[in-house]
Structure of PH domain-containing protein:
Amino acid sequence: MGGLKLGREAQNKYDEARQNPDHAGFLEKKGAKRKNWNARWFVMKDNYLFYSKSKKANPQGIINLHGCTVVKPEGLNSRPTCFNVLAPKSVSIDSKWTNRLYFFAAKDDTEMKDWIKAIERASQKPSERQGEANSKETAKSDPSPREERPSSPGGPGSGSDDSDEENGTREKITTPTLPLPDDPGRSD
């Protein structure tokens, strides 16, 4: 009941994530519309971060971490253990694939740092759809490529949802730029 209707590929990835996650745990997530903080269960597998209302609930959304940026906000409204993820591709119950800024808060500093490290690692992992040659090529290349990549539907610059942004400066933590994988929520 409730939750996001997943395509076959995304459902397989979610099942795999639940059984053998790369990282999992509760975080508080700030809502995109209501702006309130709610505890959510997160499971990460490869480039995907799924979130739901509880460990057993269907996912409420999927964040494609491939090429995301993690920032630590500094400002009057930020919590001490708050961090943001700018995801080039994410999907939730009420949105299509879009560029979105997420607000998360961990229970303590150690947990926050663990999540940031896990998300940064996932953001730099090659897409499963890239061949082994692309993986080797990416590993050899400059970690901050300067090549222009074509804009993809739902990617950066396609109607960014800036409603989550708060005023204040942000410390930049990482800015990987890698090709985006295909939509994991599509049905084949």
Confidence is low (pLDDT under 50) at residues 129-188.
